[in-house]
Every structure is written in structure tokens, then in C-alpha cells.
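Q: Okay, next protein. This is LD-carboxypeptidase from Ureibacillus endophyticus. I've checked the sequence twice, so it should be correct. Can you predict the 3D structure?
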Amino acid sequence: MKIRPKRLQPGDTVGVLAPCSPLAMETLPEKIDFLEELGLKVKIGKTVGLTGKYLSGTDDERIEDLHEMIEDKEIKAIFCLRGGYGAARIADKIDYQLLNENPKIFWGFSDVTYFHNAFQEYSDIVTFHGPMLSSVVQKKLSDFSKRMFQQLFTPFEIQYDEKISSLHTIVPGVVRGELTGGNLHRLMSTMGTKFEFDARGKILLFEDIGEPLQKIDGMLNQLRLARKLDQAAGFVIGDFAELEKGACIEDVWAIFEEYLKPLGKPAVAGYKIGHCEPNIAVPLGVDAILDADTKLLRILPGVE
């Protein structure tokens, strides 16, 4: 059983950092306003405002910022500003025992998938796959997505069915297991490293953006050859946005069907989790029940 961080209370202080790609500073105030509207106080990380060609500061600056926020007893949660690229560059420099000794909420997605996987494996802590603060702009982050931040204050079981989005059962059946995963491309980049994701008995979440059908097929084939798909207990297929011209989401589901149907593991596609709106935030590292027959996904709370 992984460590569930403590729930937030109004008035708590949270940290905001940029551990991956940089963010245009002129958009920062609205991100801070959003957190303050939730009743939170905000500490800005040293990496916020640092710029490079594609990284928010040097590796040393980003790892130092992360460590300081983890050690800071006043900070109860860490929110990532944006994804992009950079998590994998510092994954082997993180003091994982530090987070294990100072458990707190860690929130983000996309490139942050690399952190999620590493923190669950080496810090043994539940993390949150949710919208980046870079998405917090009027008309971009829906009210539904914003409401999902409330799970950090009041623990509740997430129940996802077709009232939220149309779902497609790829393989029927019911399974219970630990929910893990995230961005498919970033999960693939863990292969062959000490951070290679563990699929054994897990319900795997996959989402991605801007990948051609051929590459999606190639990534799934590599997971098949590595026995990751065979080791998993079930599959939650999230959003695959910005497909190549002429492709549709049904083409993506057809690729998943080709790889997952022979396995006989419960699998459902169409979840609004990922680079989409709404973007339903979910805890990773907690138990979930996937009922592919009734198209109901139930996820236990991520905080205590």
C-alpha cells in the first residue's frame, strides 16, 4: 500500500515549480490566482521564470528547486507549471527518500509522467495525474476540470462512467488493481532504465498527443514484445489528441483492439484523461476497479 499524502486544508501553502519546460511569465499571475481562489497560499519555485531553449533552468537548478520544495515543511503540495521535456534528465538525481520522509501531494501530467512513475517506485507515494497549471486560463480549463482539484481537500472515490464521456469497451470483464501509467511516449522512454515502469498486476493508463498512428502502433508493439501488456491486469485508454490529418480516434481504438483483445484483459477507451478538456484528474498508485461490462471505473481517494 503506497503512502497517501495528507489532504489540503484552506490556508495551506503549496509550491509551484517548473521542473520541465519553461512558461511565459506574463501568464503566471492567472495560475497563482487560481490556487489562491482555492484558499491556498503559494510559494513560487526558483525555476519559475528561468528560461532556456527547451528547459526551465539547468538540471542542477531544477533538481535543487524540487528538493527544496520537498524539504519545506510549510509546503503541503507541489504543482507543476507545465510539461514539455526535462523530467527524465533529473530523475536519477532525485533524493527519493526525501519525499518518502516528507510525503506531500505532487500534481501534473504529460512529461511529468516520468516523475509519477519514479516517485511511485522509489518514494512509494501516491501522485496525481492532473491538468498542468499552464492550462489554467479562462475558457481553456473547464469548470469540470477545476472541480477535480477538490479531491485534494475532501477525499472521495472517483467514479467515471458514460455520464462524463462516451466510452468504448475493447475487452469485457472486471478487474481490480493499482492504477498507474500516464503519457504513453514518456512511459516508453523509461524502458531499459532503472525507472522502467512496472506493469505487473497494474491497471495501465495510456494517453498521448500529436503521435501518428504508425508510432502509436510501434509503441504498443514494443510494449507487447517487452511483455508489459501481458503483465498488466487491465487498461484505461485516455485521450489521444492532435492526430495526423485524415486520422480519427476510432483508428486509435482499432490499434489498441489489435493488441489488447488477444490478451483478454479488461480494457476501456474514451476516458477524458490527458491532453483534452475536460481533463479528469486521477490519483496514481491507488487501487481502482475497472468494470468494462458496465463501463464504470472506480478509483479510491489519493489523499488521507
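A: Here is a summary of the prediction. The longest helix spans residues 59-71. The two ends are 13 Å apart (CA to CA).
Q: Noted. On to the next one.
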